[in-house]
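Let's practice the habit of predicting before peeking. Look at the sequence and jot down your guess about where helices and strands might fall. Then scroll down.
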Amino acid sequence: MRYMMLLKVDPTLPAEPSAELMEEMGKLLEEMTRSGVLLDTAGLRPVDEGTVLRLAGGKQTVVDGPYAEAKEVIGGYCIVQAKSQEEAVEWASRFLAIHGDEWELTAEVRQMVEPE
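Done guessing? Here is the structure:
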């Protein structure tokens, strides 16, 4: 089963990873790749470079970033192939743990709908 981890960050906090964090992330991603779990992952550009489209009442609105009302934004994602929700959550937990005390992150883990 495929699972997506939506990695949410506070857009008001600095989000520059240290060299040490990048090294630790590289090790974890390498382990995930070797084990056949990692399908895709990436960080996202800052919210001030994004655009939000909303549909309500049949009308679309378009808002360019930054989004003053946003308390959390998706800062990246990771798609894994896991045997269960519990396994996917364990990988997400390990990803969060390497970030240490200086980061505030949320990982939302959800199973992806497979094509029929």
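How did you do? The mean pLDDT is 90.
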